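Troubleshooting entry. The earlier prediction with magnesium ion gave an output that would not parse, so I re-checked the input for stray whitespace and re-submitted. Clean input:
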Amino acid sequence: MARCYAVVNQKGGVAKTTTVVNLAAVAALEGRSVLVVDADAQGNATSGLGIRRDQIEFCLYDLLTRFDGDGSPAIDEVIQPTATPNLDCLPATIDLAGAQLALANAISREMRLRRVLEPVRNAYDIIIIDTAPSLGLLTINALAAADRVLIPIQCEYYALEGLSQLLQIISMVQAEINPPLALGGAILTMYDARTNLAEDVAEEVRRNFPGPTFQAKVPRNVRLAEAPSHGLPAVIYDKHCPGSAAYRRLYWEVFEDA
Amino acid sequence: MARCYAVVNQKGGVAKTTTVVNLAAVAALEGRSVLVVDADAQGNATSGLGIRRDQIEFCLYDLLTRFDGDGSPAIDEVIQPTATPNLDCLPATIDLAGAQLALANAISREMRLRRVLEPVRNAYDIIIIDTAPSLGLLTINALAAADRVLIPIQCEYYALEGLSQLLQIISMVQAEINPPLALGGAILTMYDARTNLAEDVAEEVRRNFPGPTFQAKVPRNVRLAEAPSHGLPAVIYDKHCPGSAAYRRLYWEVFEDA
Ligand SMILES: Nc1ncnc2c1ncn2[C@@H]1O[C@H](COP(=O)(O)OP(=O)(O)OP(=O)(O)O)[C@@H](O)[C@H]1O
Ligand SMILES: Nc1ncnc2c1ncn2[C@@H]1O[C@H](COP(=O)(O)OP(=O)(O)OP(=O)(O)O)[C@@H](O)[C@H]1O
Ligand SMILES: [Mg+2]
Ligand SMILES: [Mg+2]
């Protein structure tokens, strides 16, 4: 039975996608079978794994909005392999931007993603969901489907501001729709050791975050930003760079008990 | 009559807020009277201008969702001065996260912000609206209220992906609800001259963006990220840093005809 992780933070640009793509790739290189679910209409995780828009016939939108029997695709027709062995992707396209509206009146609309993933929970060791910078219905769906929540936090001031709201939403999901959901932990990203700002924010997170803060900090490293243009995770595009080393350390902390 | 600018990009973390706060501050220092409208429930522009949560009695949410006559506050009870002379702020709080739902069935829901700002259009030279990393109803409201759209683009690969969708939404707003809306231009942000990635992306933007790309590039500069923790725009917190110099150059390009 796969352990399912949702990577969530409504603050934009904090390295949600970079964390999903690279943690998933490390897990796959370690021999685990991994599924990345792209629940962000921007589709950055999909393209970061090398899947081009013209290769996608169905995406997560088709699974979320079509109920059984009306000719909707089966999930294994939507999931695609990636260039990395053991690593598959359930892709997103811009259609996903219409999901919130399409599901607005659906019964149990928060549980659609959980239902969609049920048929493949036993086919993978790890499922990891990338979300949009929002606390809307799709992110709630990701929290409802997950066993653990991972929260990337950019080591900068604005990233601290939304944290209490995010934790409130997580507690509501735990209380109302997914009681076993656990806080996996905070991941410190874009940590620039040369500035006081990064350590000040990191200290603030360690003091105030109600769950664990992972030891491994992901440094700012341009190779992490270059890898997506090659459609590869950085841990494959440049496995020796500081960013890749950090994601390998992070893997052992995050998935040690998966 | 104020010229109104919306700063929009659904990609997260591309420096929308940093651009709004610093361009507005430069304009104020140049003697223009400026209003920053924070249309993002994260409230980063509000705190970046030094307005603390406990100082806010009413925010944009109260104006958007209360129609005339039922005891709603007048806009000048909601607008607050900032530490910078000539620079006021219409603040946001987390309440704003409820605006999309509250307005879902309102008549002419896309035009609420435009109506809200009408009484103060003549009180300012420049109005500049910060938006969330989303193309939802609040961002549409900002586009419907604006005369010009400014699009910050981080010089990294993922930031290019959402551009065509953003331009599609802008054309729909121009066709349906705000025909005079003009593309002000693309602003290249977090430009790191030491990497090829930045120049590759910048070149791609200049080639494909259907409007002007401003000459002034905003370099990556940690002082821009430090300023918000002091509740000050960087152009005031550290006016001599490279980031501040870039926003001053950008001011002359963006507002030269305002
Ligand atoms: N440690 C790092 N060092 C340098 N660049 C990074 C790092 N992590 C991420 N990036 C880059 O920063 C930008 C933002 O990261 P990313 O897109 O992963 O964030 P996100 O939280 O998924 O954004 P969104 O909120 O839009 O979904 C990207 O261009 C990415 O390549
Ligand atoms: N040129 C720059 N150099 C260094 N840091 C920057 C620069 N511009 C912005 N930042 C920092 O990068 C982070 C993202 O910027 P900002 O919050 O302004 O982006 P945004 O587009 O408003 O994000 P969101 O999508 O969440 O609204 C912030 O911590 C900010 O302080
Ligand atoms: Mg992302
Ligand atoms: Mg912002």
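This one parsed fine. The pocket of magnesium ion (ligand 4) is lined by residues B 16-17, 40, 44, 130 (CB under 6 Å).
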